[in-house]
Amino acid sequence: MSLKHGLIGLLAREGPQTGYQLTKAFDRSVNFVWHAVHGQIYPELARLVEAGFIRQTGTGPRGSKRYEATPEGVAELRRWITDVEPTRGTRSETLLRTFFVYLVDPDAAEAFFRREAEEYRRELAVLEGFAAERVTKPSERASALTVDSGVRVLKARIKWAESAADEASGW
Amino acid sequence: MSLKHGLIGLLAREGPQTGYQLTKAFDRSVNFVWHAVHGQIYPELARLVEAGFIRQTGTGPRGSKRYEATPEGVAELRRWITDVEPTRGTRSETLLRTFFVYLVDPDAAEAFFRREAEEYRRELAVLEGFAAERVTKPSERASALTVDSGVRVLKARIKWAESAADEASGW
DNA sequence: TGACTCATGTAAGAAGTTACATGATTCT
DNA sequence: AGAATCATGTAACTTCTTACATGAGTCA
Asked: Per CATH, is B3-83 categorized as 1.10.10.10?
């Protein structure tokens, strides 16, 4: 359901592209908010053409196919953003482990939380790189908001992981 | 992969239970970090018995089946917590919508972010109810850490959503 | 020519959702 | 007796992951 909108959106945002380029573009941008790989992308593109939300505009070198978003596709994307309630329902492996972390010894628990904190700091460094980029276009203002969310949430998670590590070390 | 550990963990944590009770227990506790429904739980319990990670201890009224975690199951859970790197890879419908939110008009964008903030506040209220409960057992100290993570992250998200709404209203 | 990147596709399987189906027990 | 809850299961379907398969163009 969401991959569909991610693909229409990338075509609307960055202009006509091949499936291969979309796969790369996913890796670079949307990937931080919605991960997808080519094994899922190619079949979905075929379904989107079928549904009329995107259109193949031609073929390029090495049998590549160029797609663009149709007005119907962009309309569907707008409708999805404003009218469809996002699916909630957290699934966090880290928090599931945390829920049962009392089963391991304090040293292992502390190490687990320190590793989490490190990982979050690595991710934060990447996002702060994005945040330093200059923002001009409307689409960049929108993606800057997703980066800002990531930065705020990661900072909260880092503080949490360090405080959890401190607590677990005393168990 | 994770549902498996969630089920072993609940049996280890709360003692022998039926599939039905596990489904209810999931709804009340783990559900906030890992959502699952009975259609997924019953087949998984059968697989866990097969694998030797849990054991059926007897039958109760109305054909119910009671399970308990085996030592092998608890060992597997410990191994998973300390030795297996958590799968990262965010999937947030809210952030995917945010990435493309420049396509809708400023009023709709602002409304979208205000609704998000409201939803987060509702979730925060639930978690703060949990946070007010008294903590004594080790398992409760662990679950208090998951609640603390939720509280910190939700507060960050609320601030983000309000600031995004303010910004979008000026577009 | 051999290695690498570009480019698309499918197949098998795991994981997750939703709905259907059934029967036992309890409560009013 | 009828409604509600307890209790388990499966079937159909969608989504996602991983791996296999293949071929075209580029560059050293």
From this structure: yes
Please say if the pLDDT value at position A27 is more than 90. no
Mean pLDDT (chain A) is 95
Q: Which residues contact A103 (CB under 8 A, 6 or more apart)?
A: B9, B12, B74, B77, B78, B81
Q: How many Å apart are CA B143 and CA A117, to the nearest integer?
A: 18
Say which DSSP state B86 is in: P
The answer to whether residues A167 and B146 touch, using CB atoms and an 8 Å cutoff, is: no
Q: CB of A41 within 8 A of CB of A24?
A: no
Strands A65-69 and A54-59: antiparallel
Rounded distance between C-alpha atoms, residue A73 and residue A9, angstroms: 9
Q: Which residue is nearest to nucleotide D11 (CA to C1')?
A: B39
Q: What is the pLDDT of residues A104-150, one digit of tens each?
A: 999 999 999 999 999 999 999 999 999 999 999 999 999 999 999 99
Which among B77, B89, B152 has the least Cβ separation from residue A160? B152
C-alpha neighbours within 13 Å on the C-beta side of residue A52: 4
Min Cα separation B36/chain A (Å): 10
SS3 B136: coil
Interface residue B40 vs chain A (CB under 8 A): no
Mean pLDDT within B52-71: 95
Q: Are A53 and A70 in contact (CB under 8 A)?
A: yes
CB contact under 8 A, B92 and A33: yes
- For the CA of A2 and the C1' of D12, the distance in angstroms is 21
Cα A99–Cα A105–Cα A108 angle in degrees, nearest 5: 80
- Residue ranges per structural domain of chain A: 3-83, 93-169
A83-93, pLDDT tens digit by residue? 999 998 789 99
pLDDT exceeds cutoff 90 at B89 = no
Helices A71-83 and B106-131, packing angle to 10 deg: 40
